[in-house]
Each structure stands twice: as structure tokens, then as C-alpha cells.
Design goal:
single chain; 352 residues; mainly alpha; 87% helix; globular; AI-2E-like; membrane; AI-2E family transporter
């Protein structure tokens, strides 16, 4: 007579345990994939929040500067900061808008001719012929597709500016509400650390933004002065492009130099070399004067990590990711330093 052991027939305990583990692994993988997909979709929203925060940091930094020099009430200084910024930007667009628009249109219309003439100038030298031969190996269709993708992403960024601007204004009007809201989500034991981290991130972003804007202004002034001295047409547009693209470390100055050098080739190869040397000299001045000033106000960002973050962020979010790669990297380094490195040092000191 067979005894009933209470086990299901046909399956051993080992088989049931293995099947259970398989389903757990499948569930974890499915959850991880879902979270990654959600983060991928929401990553652009996170970048827009960061961009809005940078606008608020700019307004508050300008308000602090006004208050230190005038000793007026904080609310009045903030109104002057916001209204004054919009007034200055509007005046610049009104004063230089028509001229810049005409130069941009002329540069856009003449660009194929400029490239063709530059190719003719390069063909006259041995080195230039080798450069053209190397470039001609690339597939023109793929280059055009990349360019179209870049500009379509750029227009997408321009479409997001409306939301970013309003986020910046809301963050400017009541920053404490959002800051206190974040701190309330932290457990009581970590509220002090959260406040310290938020204050340090704000200080780092404020210093980085101040130094970056100073560098952009300096490069635009030096570029327009140099191009005007060389009698290069469309100097104002090229200088504005150089200043704005300096917001993108490493790659921005190189991108800004390309149209200026091509325009120089339409005059002579020597002029193109002179323009390239001028751009390089301006970047050397910026790297040795402005960058050290920026690094006094913020953490020192390793160049390799900056490039890696730009490539990674550009792959994930296009132009907006490249623009915000540096401040995002600064925030990550602050978080790692405050929440891990300093904690490890405290543990070592306590153990000793």
C-alpha cells in the first residue's frame, strides 16, 4: 500500500524551486526594462526641469548681485532682475535683430558657394587636396541625414523653450516651495544632508553659469573685434555664433570655427589660416583666464568625463542633452561627493 507523502505528483522540490527562481528572474528583468523605458521617455522632461532650474539660478544670482550693491528689498531686486533681463534681451534683438537676420540669410544663401570656393582653394595645395580626398570618402547621403537630424532636433529644442522658460519663471517666483517639497520627501535622518546637498548644487550651478556667461560674452567681443579687424563679412553673426556655442565645452568652439574658416578660404588660404589661428588664440585665452575663474566657484570637472557625458547625453537627448551635459555632470559629482565620498571619510575617521 503506497503512502501519501503530501507532495505533488510528477515534480520534485528541486524542480519547483528552480521554476520559482526562473519566474522571479523574469519578473525582475521585466521590471528593469519597464523602468529603463520610463526613464528614457522621462529623461527629456528631467533635462527641461534642469534647464528651467538654470534660468531660475540666473535670475536669483543677478538678484543677489543687485541686492548687494543697492541694499534694496529682495522682492524689488528680483523684479529688476527678471524684468531687466527681458528688457535687455528684447532691446538687443530689436537693435541687432535686422542686421543679424540679414547676415544669417546671406550666410545661408552663400554657404554652397562658400564651400565650393573653399574646395577650389584647397585643391591648389597638396595638403588641401589630401584633405578633400579624405573627406570625399564619406558618404554624402549619410552626412546630409546627420545634418537634417541635427537641425530637426534643434527645432525640437526651440519648441521646448516655451516650457523651459515658464518652468524657470515658476522656480524663480517660489524656489523655497520646491526646495522644501524635495526635503519633505527625505526621511528625517537625511533632511539635513539633503539641505546641504541642495545648497551646494545651487552654489555650484550659480558659479558655473556666471563664469560661462562671462566666457561667452568675452569670446563674442574678441571674435567680432578680430573678424572686423580682418575685414571679414558677417562678423557679427559669426561672433554671436562663437559666443553661444561656447556654452558647449570642447565641441562648441570647433563648430563655430568651421563657417568662419570656410569664409576665409573664399578670400585666400592664408586668410583661412589666420582666422583659425585667431579662434585658437581666443580659446587659449578663455581656457587660461575664464576657466580657472569658473573652477574657483565650482568643482573641477575632469575633461575626459566632460566629453563622455556630452557624447552620452547627446545620444540620449540630442542637442538639449549636449547643452546640459556639463551642469548635469557637475550635479552628479556633487551628489557622489556629498552622499558617498564624505560619508566614507567620516567612517574612516570614526573607526580610527
Amino acid at each position: 500500500m503506497a503512502l501519501n507523502t503530501g507532495r505533488p505528483t510528477g515534480k520534485t522540490d528541486e524542480q519547483l524551486s528552480f521554476s520559482h527562481k526562473i519566474w522571479i528572474v523574469i519578473g525582475i528583468v521585466a521590471l528593469a526594462v519597464s523602468i529603463i523605458l520610463i526613464l528614457r521617455v522621462a529623461f527629456n522632461v528631467l533635462l527641461m526641469v534642469l534647464a528651467g532650474s538654470l534660468i531660475a539660478v540666473f535670475f536669483h544670482g543677478l538678484g543677489d548681485a543687485i541686492q548687494r550693491r543697492t541694499f534694496m528689498r529682495r522682492s524689488i531686486c528680483m523684479i529688476i532682475s527678471v524684468v531687466g533681463t527681458f528688457a535687455i534681451v528684447g532691446f538687443l534683438f530689436w537693435f541687432m535683430g535686422n542686421k543679424i537676420q540679414a547676415q544669417v540669410a546671406a550666410l545661408s544663401d552663400d554657404f554652397p558657394r562658400i564651400v565650393s570656393k573653399a574646395q577650389g582653394q584647397l585643391q591648389q595645395t597638396e595638403l588641401g587636396a589630401k584633405v578633400l580626398k579624405s573627406v570625399s570618402k564619406y558618404d554624402t547621403t549619410s552626412l546630409m541625414t546627420t545634418a537634417q537630424s541635427f537641425f530637426s532636433t534643434s527645432f525640437g529644442v526651440l519648441g521646448d523653450l516655451y516650457i523651459i522658460l515658464f518652468l524657470g519663471i515658476f522656480f524663480t517666483v517660489s524656489p523655497s516651495m520646491y526646495k522644501d517639497g524635495i526635503i519633505k520627501l527625505i526621511p528625517p535622518s537625511g533632511k539635513h544632508d539633503a539641505k546641504v546637498v541642495i545648497d551646494r548644487i545651487s552654489l555650484v550651478l550659480k558659479g558655473w553659469l556666471k563664469g560661462m556667461m562671462l566666457a561667452m560674452l568675452l569670446i563674442a567681443i574678441l571674435t567680432v573685434s578680430g573678424l572686423t579687424a580682418l575685414s571679414i563679412p558677417m562678423a557679427l553673426t559669426l561672433a554671436l555664433m562663437a559666443g553661444l556655442l561656447n556654452f558647449i565645452p570642447n565641441f562648441g568652439p570647433l563648430i563655430a570655427m568651421v563657417p568662419a574658416v570656410l569664409l576665409g578660404f573664399t578670400i585666400s588660404p592664408n586668410m583661412a589660416i589666420t582666422i583659425a589661428a585667431m579662434y585658437i588664440l581666443i580659446q587659449i585665452l578663455e581656457s587660461n583666464i575664464i576657466t580657472p575663474m569658473v573652477q574657483k566657484r565650482m568643482i573641477d570637472l575632469p575633461p575626459a568625463l566632460t566629453i563622455i557625458s556630452q557624447v552620452l547625453m547627446g545620444t540620449l537627448s540630442g542637442v538639449l542633452g549636449i547643452l546640459l551635459a556639463t551642469p548635469m555632470l557637475a550635479i552628479i559629482i556633487v551628489l557622489v561627493d556629498e552622499l558617498y565620498v564624505k560619508k566614507q571619510k567620516e567612517v574612516i575617521i570614526t573607526s580610527e
